[in-house]
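Changelog excerpt: complex records now keep ligands as SMILES alongside chain sequences, and the structure block spans every component. Example after the change:
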Amino acid sequence: MLFAHDTECGLVAAAGLVNTDGPDQELLPDVAALDRFITTHGWTGRHEHTDAELREVRALRSRLRRIWYADTDEVVAIVNGLLRESHALPQLIRHDDEPYHVHAVPRDAPLATRMAVEAAMALADLVRTGELRRLRICDHPDCDNVLVDLSKNRSRRFCDAGCGNRAAVSAYRARKAASHS
Ligand SMILES: [Zn+2]
Ligand SMILES: [Zn+2]
């Protein structure tokens, strides 16, 4: 493990959230889709299942996406802004079956606030360890999904949406076409 468990989960969840805002597809079209998303990423605590909550979560995405394109000083400004607005106060807590980890807002804070703060805390770790390069955009030419490279040798190139396979298939076809010409 490169970072603390909650840092890695926070980064993966933030990237997952950003990627629900596809260029031609809204992957959080309704409350049910948000329910599935938070189950996938293990979110517990307050969850209202309302359109207002859904709107707040969706609105967070473009702000988080900017982080993937920003330089260090801009990332710091965004992260500090998110923490300040949310009145973040880091506390070690234990809940469900998890070991002690840090929450910087209470579990009954709105979902979008908790998502923002968890992302910001995880990003703060990346800044402190000089590892912002681990935030990448998918290498597939048709994809602008964001990803977090948590591999040891920083070798991850593609997002989770099957782009690695797609790229391998195109490379295979290209080789085959070349060998037949
Ligand atoms: Zn927790
Ligand atoms: Zn991709």
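DSSP finds six helices and four strands in the chain. The two ends are 46 Å apart (CA to CA).
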